[in-house]
Amino acid sequence: MGYLKNRESGWTSRAACKGEPVEIFYKKKYLKIAQRICSGCVVKKECGLAGRKEKFGVWGGIPRGWLREEK
Question: What are the structural domain ranges in the chain?
Fold first, then answer.
């Protein structure tokens, strides 16, 4: 399982998801958890803008495209 890297610069260094398992933001079964993490994030707007062209995942609390089903 991958983790979101501890970033030291830009808006990502202040993201609420920093250090969380990356699969939370790409699997449908974790959607509510991802949205809860994003709900109080101080950079939710920046994240949503960064993910606006992404095909997959949760960006700024908004699911993009499809999320993987657990097999």
Answer: 11-65
